[in-house]
Each structure stands twice: as C-alpha cells, then as structure tokens.
Specification:
Blueprint (H helix, E strand, L loop, with lengths): L2 E9 L4 E9 L2 E6 L9 E4 L4 E4 L1 E6 L4 E2 L2 E2 L4 H10 L2 E9 L6 H12 L6 E7 L10 H8 L3 E5 L8 H14 L2 E5 L3 H13 L6 H5 L3 H18 L3 E3 L5 H12 L4 E5 L1 H5 L22 H13 L4 E2 L8 H4 L19 H10 L5 H16 L15 E11 L18 E11 L2 E5 L2 E2 L15
Helix pairs in contact: 7-8, 8-10, 12-13
Bound molecules: dihydropyrimidine-2,4(1H,3H)-dione and zinc ion (ZN) (2 copies).
C-alpha cells in the first residue's frame, strides 16, 4: 500500500460515508473502516475533510489557435491549473485540418500534449472535413480511443447542415458521440453587421448579436436532427432557457440528449458586458439574462443538465483589449479550469445542490458519458484521482492565487465556501495546500470507449 487516506468522508454520485481509502500503484485498492497501513505507507489524516473523485473537465481549449491568437494556457499551464482546482482529467478539443483524418488530427495535437500534461487527458475532435473517405476516419478514431466529436454551427470553421447530418449518421453507425456548439451563424453574422454599422461596438453588443433565441434556435434544430436520426447528442455549454426547455422535452420523450453547462453561465448574466472590463467576459455563447441563469440551476436540480465543464479558453488582457472599440476583435473565451470544481462544491456547501450532485456533474457523469472507465468515482479498481476537500476553508478567488498563465480571471473576488487541500493524480500528489507539486509529462492519454 502506497497511500492511505484515513478518517475522511467519501463522496460518490450517490452516497456519502466515512471510510479510509487505500491506494497502491495508482489505483484505489481498498475502502473500509480502520484500514491498517503497511510499512512505508504514506498515511494522510483526512478527518473533518471530504474525499472526492477528481473532476473531469470535458471541455477545454488549450493552446488553441483562435481569434487571431492562441489561447494563453498551453498543455502544461492548463493542466497545472486543473490539478490545483481538483480536476484530474481534461478533455481538449482538437481542431481537424481540411484533408486530415481524425486520428492524424489527434496524433498531431498529442505530440504537443503528451510531454506537457500534468494530469490525465483525452480529446474530442472538432470536425471540419468529412469529404470522401474522411467520414470513415470517425470510426478509426473511435477504435483509437477517441469516440467523441464536436461540430460547430458557428465560426469560420463551423460546418454546414449537410456535414452535421453526415456526422450524426456516421456516429450512429459506429457508436460515436457528437457534441454541438449551437448558435445560428447567419443570425450572428447579420446582427453583428447591423450593430457595427450603427456604431454599436462595445462588449454589450457581443451579447446583443448572440442573444437567447440565436442559441435556442440552433439547440432546437440540432435536437431535431438527433431525434430524426435517433442518435445521441451532447449539447456543449448550454446557456439559454429555451434550449433548456428543448432538452427537457427531448429527454422526457426518451431521446438520449445530454446537456453540459459551465460555471460562468450559472454565476453571471449578460449584465457583465456592461462593465468596464466587460470584454474579459466575452465568450461564445455569451452569458444570458437572469431567467436563463435560473433555468440552468433548475435544470440541474431536475436532472436535465448532465455535466459541468468549463470551456476554458483564456486570453491575456492585451489580447482582450484588441476589442476595446470593436467587440468582434475580442478573442472569445475565459479561464475557468481551476474554478469549476471549487465553484460547484461551494454551491453544495451552501446548500444549493447536494455534494453527490456536484460529484455526479463534475466527475461521475463525464466519465460515464465519454467512457473513461477508470475515472469518476472513489471505488475499488478506479484510478486514484482523489481530492481532499476542506469544507471549512473560506477562499476568495484572486488571479495571483490561480495557476493558469492568464493574467486575469473573470472570477476575481468570488468567495467560495470550502476548497480543495490536496489533489492526487493516479496516487501522485499534484496539488498541496495552494501549491502545484506535480510534474510536466505525468499526465497520460485516457483511451475512451462509449460502447
Ligand atoms: N467559445 C469560446 O468562447 N471560446 C472558444 C471556442 C468557443 O466556442
Ligand atoms: Zn463552443
Ligand atoms: Zn468550447
């Protein structure tokens, strides 16, 4: 036995119980009362603390070329920040190049990630080109251990309706899962042009050019196709109330529609775009009105939101400043990878959700949905991805306490109740009382299978 975490309260997605947790060779080997350590076992006293499975952030963009620059957290900085927020598995989006197979796209990015990741990682491929034989490379990627893909309905790399249809059909044939960034591209472009021509250029018009119905219409269309083909669909970063209603309806009708939302949509409203630093909050989809924020929390409590992820895609202040006088020049995205688990656990600590729910949304469900069989629970046989959480710590987020390379955070000043004290990745301590203590290259590729 290498590690014994004694006297803590273990949380799974369905239970909370007192147990000691024994770890050997990176795996959880025993759960029980009064487990005795072997010689040389590192014993950690967790009395008064909670023992949680590490979170899985199923939505990040590390070192992503976007908006005329590259997101400011590379694979090391992003995974370092993840570890320090209790996230032990990170999914990154690989943007396929035209003419490139899905597996080649994964290998191209893996050459950058593998030597640098501080926690375990996997990928979704953002599909651009399925012409000719490339459509079949989806199946090859499934066999390679990357069974999840994403289509963007917006941006210059967004797909046409025909490509979206083809990808959904292929996914049904080979057991892949398709995620979708749902916003109506034509409406975004039309509204953007309109506001610019009227001289309405502040960050507020980022929201105005992508309001509730622009996202809701695309959610409904994507759901309609998934229903027509009877194919599972995963809606990423759901942020609007009518989209929530469409998800609830589809679930009630028995379709496999998964919905993810992000902490920024649960905390902020579009009012942030009226702030002096509003451009720092520019991401797509943008934060919406209060009714949407409430609808997302209600959906969490009803069980209609399946996962929480971050859409971590930070840009430095000087890059955000490019859009001071023109919102279209603001690179889209915010940092959040270090804040997700502490934010959701604080919501549990404050009584807004249960701790089991926080674990379900941030760890158990992403493991199940994306097929990471060794992750997502404190249970015998699972990887020893473990967070020791002190529910009594009061923590105010400030950028100087964060471990990302980004020079600011939209979470500045947010007060949290409870905070992770230690994070273990496969039994190795990677975060200890405020400090990153892991190492570059420790993280391993997680082969996924959703069949
Ligand atoms: N939205 C963002 O805000 N950033 C990266 C990509 C995306 O869809
Ligand atoms: Zn997106
Ligand atoms: Zn994204």
């Amino acid at each position: 036995m290498d590690l014994l975490i004694k006297g803590g309260t273990v949380v799974t997605d369905s239970h909370i119980f007192k147990a000691d947790v024994a770890v050997e060779n990176g795996k959880i080997t025993m759960l029980g009362q009064n487990i005795s350590p072997a010689d040389n076992t590192n014993v950690i006293d967790a009395s008064g603390k909670m023992v949680l499975p590490g979170a899985i952030d199923a939505h990040t963009h590390l070192a992503m070329p976007f908006g005329g620059t590259i997101s400011s957290d590379d694979y090391f900085a992003g995974t370092r920040a993840a570890a320090c927020g209790g996230t032990t598995t990170v999914f990154d989006f690989v943007l396929q190049d035209f003419g490139e197979t899905m597996v080649d796209a994964v290998k191209r990015r893996d050459a950058l990630c593998a030597p640098n990741a501080a926690v375990d990682y996997s990928y979704h491929v953002a599909v651009k080109d399925v012409s000719g034989d490339l459509i079949d490379s989806i199946e090859d990627a499934v066999k390679f251990g990357v069974p999840s893909f994403k289509v963007f309905m917006v941006y210059d790399f967004g797909v046409t309706d025909g490509v979206f249809y083809k990808v959904l059909k292929k996914a049904k044939e080979c057991g892949a899962l398709i995620g979708v960034h749902a916003e109506n591209n034509e409406l975004v472009n039309m509204l953007t042009e309109q506001y610019l021509s009227e001289g309405k250029t502040s960050a507020w018009y980022h929201y105005m050019s992508r309001p509730e119905f622009v996202e809701a219409e695309a959610d409904m269309r994507a759901i309609q196709w998934a229903k027509a083909l009877d194919t599972p669909l995963y809606i990423v970063h759901l942020a609007n109330k009518d989209g929530v209603a469409a998800v609830t309806k589809a679930k009630d009708e028995g379709y496999t529609i998964y919905a993810e939302t992000c902490p920024q949509y649960l905390e902020f409203t579009c009012d942030v775009y009226k702030r002096e630093d509003g451009r720092n909050f520019v991401c797509s989809p943008p934060m919406k009105g209060e009714a949407s924020r409430i609808a997302l929390w209600d959906a969490i409590n009803r069980g209609d939101i399946d996962t929480i992820a971050t859409d971590h895609c930070p840009f430095q202040s000087y890059e955000k400043d490019w859009g001071k006088d023109d919102f279209t020049k603001i690179p889209n995205g915010c940092a959040g990878i270090e804040n997700m688990y502490p934010y959701m656990l604080s919501a549990a600590n404050e009584g807004n959700i249960t701790f089991e729910k926080a674990v379900e949304l941030c760890s158990a469900n992403p493991a199940k949905i994306f097929g990471c069989k060794d992750k997502g629970a404190i249970a015998v046989g699972k990887d020893a991805d473990i967070v020791i959480y002190n529910p009594k710590t009061e923590f105010t987020i400030t950028n100087d306490k964060m471990h990302s390379d980004c020079d600011h955070t939209i979470w500045e000043g947010k007060k949290l109740f409870g905070y992770p004290e230690k994070t273990y990745s496969r039994g190795k301590l990677v975060f200890d009382n405020g400090d990153f203590v892991g190492e570059k290259g420790w993280g391993k590729f997680v082969k996924c299978s959703i069949k």
